[in-house]
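Researcher: Let's continue the batch. This sequence belongs to DUF559 domain-containing protein, and it's 127 residues. Same format as the previous ones, please.
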Amino acid sequence: MREGRKTGFARHLRRTMTDAERSVWHHLRNRAFMGCKFRRQHAVGAYIVDFVCLEHRLVVELDGGRHAGDARDENRDKALHGMGFRVLRFWDNAALAEQQTVLAAILEALDCSFPAAAKVEKSRPPT
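Model: Same format as before. Here are the structure tokens for DUF559 domain-containing protein:
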């Protein structure tokens, strides 16, 4: 897909988010999640990913039932890994019914990517 068409398609996807995407986006937007900047429906290489934190090279994908057993997802994940991204995939129903578990998994993935100095600073008790 050409760059201009990809941008237009990403805009369309942002306007037509699923309930699960909308629910998770509520927690990730505006640096509200650990101060990390997430983008939604963002072009990464040849793909448009649901959510990405470029700073921490983390992609979060929410999948509906049509993705069950889809080999294209495996190829997509391999390509994203090749670009240096980690990919977390969750089912839409889990994002809605078990939102705290999904957010905890994202938090853990982000926490693993912070430098050691930031981890030490973060865990210090207030003085």
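Researcher: Any comment?
Model: The helical segments are 3-15, 19-28, 71-82, 92-97, 99-113, 116-123.
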